[in-house]
Amino acid sequence: MRFPVPSLLGLYGVLSATAVSLVLGEGEGEVTGLETQDQPPHFLSVRPSLAKGYESEANIPTKKYFTESSFHHHYDGRFANSTLPEEKVIPYLSNLIQTYLETMNSIGAETWIMHGSLLSWWWNQKIFPWDNDLDVQISEPTIHFLADYYNFTDHHFEIPGVEGGRTYLLEINPNYVVKSTKDRLNVIDGRWIDKSSGLFIDITAVRPDDDKRKRGYPEALMCKDRHHYDESDIFPLRDSYYEDVPVKIPYAYAALLAEEYGAASMTKTDFQGHHFSDESKIWEKYSRKMKRILRRAWRGDDLPKRSGTEPLIRMDDV
Amino acid sequence: MATYESDHELDDSENLSYHHSSSSSSPSRFSRISRPLIESVRNGWQSHSNISYHSLSPENDKNPRWLQMTLSVVAAPRFRRYVVVYVTLFILSWCGWSLFLRPLLQDRSDLLHSLDPASKSESGGWFGSNSLPKFDDLIQVRTLDPDLVPMAPLEGVDAAEWKSKRLIVVGDVHGCKEELVKLLDKVSFSEEDGDHLIFTGDLINKGPDSAGVVDLAREHSASCVRGNHEDRVLLFRHEIMSPTAMTEAEEVQSQIFSSKELKERALARSLTDEQAQWLEACPVILDVGFVQGMGQVAVVHGGLVPGVDFEKQDPSSVMTMRTIDLDTHVPSASHDGLNWAKMFDKHQSILHTSLKHSNADPHSQTTTVIYGHDAKRSLNIRTYTKGLDTGCYKGGKLTALVIQDGGKQELVQVKCHTNYSKDE
Predict the structure, then answer these.
(1) Is the Cβ pair B260, A267 closer than 8 Å?
(2) Which residues contact B331 (CB under 8 A, 6 or more apart)?
(3) CA within 13 Å, CB half, B24
(4) Which residue among A237, A254, A270 sits closest to B316, beta carbon to beta carbon?
């Protein structure tokens, strides 16, 4: 890998310090001895140098960079052998997004939530209780910046109630320089991985859609996962909160949600075996009784059933 | 025996001329007209008895009897006249029904169904049931100082002592300062005489003098609401002014941002702190409160979802909505669809009807919304919604709704002579 070791170590120390101070509210940085020798590169300070060329359309990679584990497609197999117990998934995901947002915020990298995460933010600014993945996007200059200065960086966080804290890895897909949507094996540009559990966040870069811009859409944006946007739907970003930490939200969030999931996604209060409580503003799992009522209504199995197993005998047979 | 030929028999003779001579029909027709009539008389029954008795023309042989009868009925002149009259009447009434009456009734029943609480469970829920996200640097609701609101003249108060008040609500200005000055002149705006100026948002951007309009509004201590253009420009300004931001070279910027974004960023940068602070203080919803003769009044930029409290209205939608979904009540900035104002107006009129019996003053419970944003629909005045964006920066008009004591309303407009959208 091409990052200089001392600067990385220094960076690691500074980052840990910021991260720890953000989580604990006081500076308790780790001792690395090398910190602050090199100032960590700040996103905007290097932004003008980020105009970059791309691989040509002909060189579409034939290998997938990020692989999923054999046991579950939302776990990174390099860091885990099994899924987490069901009740632990949401707290782990919550820490995952909190640490990601804190880190991006402290290095000044522009990122925002999208897709399912944006929808869950819309409802109550919390991860859906049935979710097991998170979606974030970054702008194009940011992916260059992260690839150049922060690829394969570890970020350690003290987490209340977790002994020894957790370490998170930022990994950028080297195929991010291939812009074409034909690269279907590498639609994900980066990952923020919880090294203790293997859970990760998919990071996707949003880039200018040059083809479409040439055809007269000056605001066209695209991702390698074949999502298309208008610049003014995403920018300027709004400041809000998700899982109790500051987060950026795309400008026209309601329009984006309506387009991706339909208008009813913002109004239907029953979803995935959960009901959105009007009082608590939380997605509550259906109680057993509720489930029975709903199942009855749906499957009609409250119809009378014949007891016993003997077949029907027709009267004229007797 | 000689017979005098009727029309049909004349036709026969014409047909015959086809059969008997190889000459074209026009000379024969011509010669027939120029000949004395007597020459047309002949003993037709003798020479062509089979034709004149059995059929009118050779091809008619193939037509069944019922068709012949129909044809002869149609051929009757009076019948034809009536057919024309009745067909026209039918087409007219059908057009009236299908183009006017049926859509009207359909709209009405759709709206009633859409607003019926019973259909809420049918669609799985309505817009506004989420826990509203918090946004930094955005004020949701602000209440107007009640001292500024016009009242009904009280009896027993001397007319000379009575200080009348007016609210002047102005639609989207978009930096057209000249036109705004003209409009204020036309309504003879005077703060000293109890006038208060309110803007429906989008004071800035697109037009020639955004900063001038903001300064004028501040001079007159006007009230305003946050429009989508204020929203975008202020968000960009926050980004630019944040401690982590740095100024970038022009050519780098033009690589990263589209021309629309570049313009908005330039405007954001050009605003002074005072101007930006004044704009930041504009709420998404301005609650004017109770206006005698009008009921509750609110000012927003885009619109409001019926039946949702001010505090629970989604701010981004309030600033951008034009249409609304019938089933889910989800608003949209799209031009195509049901105008949100139509639904809101219906909702309020249903509310008014239901309050009539129980409440002495049903108007105190209804809300009238004054808004801008929809230049395409232009002036859109209903009982409970007043759309004032008449596209001034595109060379349309600038509109003010003047609310006087007792809730008397008057529209005042000035023409905007320059189309600034051409410069874009």
Answers:
(1) no
(2) A254, B127, B302, B303, B305, B314, B317, B320, B321, B323, B324, B325, B340
(3) 3
(4) A254
Residue in B233, B250, B256 to test binding to A, most A beta-carbons within 10 Å: B256
Q: What is chain A's Cα-based Rg?
A: 24
10-residue averages of pLDDT along chain B (424 residues)? 44 45 47 64 60 50 79 79 90 92 88 86 85 93 94 70 88 96 96 94 94 96 97 94 62 72 92 96 96 94 96 96 94 95 95 84 89 95 96 95 93 92 67
The structure tokens listed for A238 are 């709004």
pLDDT of residue B258: 82
Average pLDDT over chain A, rounded to an integer: 79
Please list the residues that pair with A270 across neighbouring strands. Answer: A275
On whether the pTM is more than 0.80, the answer is: no
Given a cut of 50, whether residue A297 has pLDDT beyond it is yes
Across the interface, whether the CB atoms of A267 and B328 are under 8 A apart is answered: yes
Buried b or exposed e, range A70-88, using 16+ CB within 10 angstroms: eebebbbeebbeebbeeee
Residues B150 and B102 in one domain: no
Neighbouring-strand partners of residue A208: A221
Output the CA angle A128-A131-A135, nearest 5 degrees. Answer: 95
Nearest-CA residue of chain B relative to A231? B258
Q: Flag whether B201 is in a domain.
A: yes
B283 preceded by a cis bond (ω within 30 of 0): no
- State the complex-level ipTM: 0.77
CA nearest to B283, candidates B225, B221, B228, B204: B225
Please compute Rg for chain B using Cα positions. Answer: 36
> Which residues have C-beta within 8 Å of that of residue A266, sequence separation ≥ 6?
A119, A122, A254, A257, A258, B127, B130, B328, B330
Pair (B155, B28) in one structural domain: no
Contact B325, A263 (CB under 8 A): yes
Instruction: Say whether residue B254 is in contact with chain A using an 8 A CB cutoff.
Output: no
Is there a contact between B131 and A281 (Cβ–Cβ < 8 Å)? yes
Say if B192 is an interface residue toward chain A (CB within 8 Å).
no
| B205 & B299 share domain | yes
Q: What is the rounded distance in angstroms from the CA atom of residue B103 to the CA atom of residue B3? A: 62
**Which domains does chain A carry?**
66-268 (3.30.460), 269-299 (no CATH)
| Amino acid of residue A159 | I
Domain range for B36 is 7-70
* CATH number of the domain enclosing B279: 3.60.21.10
Retrieve residue B243's tokens: 């401690």
Tokens of A107: 């290095």
Among residues A38, A54, A45, A33, which one has the least CA distance to residue A207? A54
Tell me the two tokens of residue B66.
């019922």
Do B318 and B208 share a structural domain? Answer: yes
Partner-chain contact B135 A239, CB within 8 Å: yes
Amino acid letter at B424? E
Helix boundaries (H) for chain A = 5-24, 43-46, 86-107, 115-124, 140-149, 210-214, 231-234, 253-261, 288-299
- Tell me how far apart the alpha carbons of residues B329 and A143 are, in angstroms, rounded to a whole number: 38
Q: Which residues of B touch A141 (CB under 8 A)?
A: 256
Kindly state whether residues B319 and B175 are assigned to the same domain. Answer: yes
* Ramachandran angles phi, psi of B385, nearest 5°: -135, 140
pLDDT of the residue at B204: 95
Same domain, B28 and B93: no
Residues B167 and B55 grouped into a single domain: no
Buried b (16+ CB within 10 A) or exposed e, B71-80: eeeeeeeeee
